Amino acid sequence: MDSGKQLTGTLAIAVFTVALGSLQYGYSLGVINAPQKVIEKHYGRSLGVWSERTAVPSENSTEEEAFSEAGQHPTVVMYWSLSVASFSIGGMVSSFLVGFVGDLRGRVKGMLMVNVLAVTAGLLMGFCKIWKPHIMVISGRAIMGFYCGLTSGLVPMYIGEIAPKAYRGALGTTHQLAIVVGILISQVIGLDFVLGNDDMWPLLLGLSGAPAILQSFLLPLCPESPRYLYIVLGKEEEARRSLYRLKGAYDASADVEEMKREKQEADKEAKVSILSLIGSSVYRKQLSVALMMHLSQQFSGINAIFYYSTSIFTRAGVGQPVYATIGVGVINTIFTLVSVALVDRAGRRTLILAGLGGMTCCAIALTVGLKLQNEYSWMSYVSMSAIFLFVSFFEIGPGPIPWFIVAELFSQGPRPAAIALAGCCNWTSNFIIGMTFPYIQTWLDSFVFILFAVLLLIFTMFTYRWVPETKGKSFQEIAAVFQKGRKKSPKAEITDTTELQQLKTSTDA
Predict the structure, then answer these.
(1) Is residue 201 within 8 Å of 41, Cβ to Cβ?
(2) Mean pLDDT in the chain?
(3) Which domains does the chain show, CATH number per domain?
């Protein structure tokens, strides 16, 4: 039986279990948006800068207008901004530790250990009313961000290492699928008549730690990564047992032989530190591609759509913008499923190019729609269609693929450092967009998405020129693609060998 073609119950349980960490990431991304006005009111009360008595009590004022009074106070604005930003800051810091945590006790035990962070964060936010809500929520969000920074690296790393070659793309896409499902769940239960109201919002935030509890019960059932066991620890028999658990009864000799060759390469190149990887010319091409993939994901404008979709729909003349935003979440999920189905057939490079090219056209169409909607009423439909198509194209390729392609581009030695760097790049870009988009929008107004169209065009050209197809290739074959142009002369070969030896020596030291 072909060892690359098995999909077993154990493999399905392992992928589902680790994807719960990605679900928490998505939930935490989306949950903070819906109850903003309610939370600002509680912050204002706790800080002593706002109360119902100081709010305008006229008969004409609505409850939401009273809430917005609290949100206009500079101190409340500061604490609210910190509540949003602390999540990204936590992720930026912890993304550097992915390799360390993954190698410390293994991928599975690493994820089990960090669940303490998620549960702690959930409890802090769930019980935030018993003390100072602003301090409790900011602390909880920072800890949850720290957890999500780790899980956004550990999940793709583990799935990439356990997935059969034929399904590596589809299973790798489950990380992004779980993220978008998490965002959708947070949008639905964040509606004011569910949990996004005055009484229930702490529970809404606290639930972000709930998947970690379920995951903690399921992780002990998951086999450790065979690649980690064999290549990092040198435990061949344990790696074989893990392969049998993941793939059923089959001849594992081909997989063991592949890992053996990879271990020999890893022993030559050593485990590369983050600083060594940045300075290394040997891995420069792979690293450039990996970082550019993550930059294209974040600077595509997708977060501008996610964070500010409600206000964009309001400008486009939608009567109930919050439901249109949930519609975006549904489209998001559907087209991530499409990506799961296509990624191992069409290939990574094809889907990224189709996605980025489609998003470029949609960004231009959205600009035209927003600019002309006051002159032509039907332009609001152009704007809405552009938003839905923009999200669809994003989830076909640029959304899910960067998360797992980094694990494919690098062999075992530099892989943890590369995933850590790519993760930090992703979180930092996310933070920059979240903080600067309101100002860019004020500056460029209706032309804001032209900026993203230009960036998307640059990313499309880069992908066409530099990103190789990794579908169906072993990790060694992918590495060989990048080394092709490097070893034309004996001098280049000597330089590479010397540099790899120096990397090994510095690591051993």
Answers:
(1) no
(2) 85
(3) 8-51+72-222 (1.20.1250.20), 272-481 (1.20.1250.20)
